[in-house]
Amino acid sequence: MTTQALLWMSVAPAHLDRVAATLATHPEPAAVVATTGPTNLLAQVLCSDPADLHRYLTRRLGALPVRAVESAPVLLTLKAAGHLTPAARPAPRRGEAGN
């Protein structure tokens, strides 16, 4: 069974792009997202087991200039991917394709 966790990180703005780009090269993150606020970088990681997650946090992530990290193990996934349905999409604006 895969161990999945959300990693909320605080990274100095001067290092944000480099840390995000480095995380994006690692095989463990399924998603890497820059955000705003006290935690400005989010990664969803997939590891083989809790020990593998621990290794990732302490070795690979620990080697990067991350000020703080909060890990939230995923207990239950209700939906893993999706897209906007036609009813949920905003109507095209005047002058856009289809108008």
From TrEMBL:
Transmembrane segments: none
Domain of life of the source: Bacteria
Residues in Transcription regulator AsnC/Lrp ligand binding domain copies: 9-75
Single Gene Ontology MF annotation: sequence-specific DNA binding
UniProt-listed GO biological process terms: response to amino acid
InterPro entries with a match to the protein in the record: Dimeric_a/b-barrel (IPR011008), Tscrpt_reg_AsnC/Lrp_C (IPR019887)
Keyword DNA-binding appears in the UniProt entry: yes
Keyword tags: DNA-binding
Gene Ontology terms: cellular component: cytosol
Pfam families noted in UniProt: AsnC_trans_reg (PF01037)
Keyword set includes Oxidoreductase: no
Name by which UniProt lists this protein: DNA-binding Lrp family transcriptional regulator
Organism for this UniProt entry: Actinomadura namibiensis
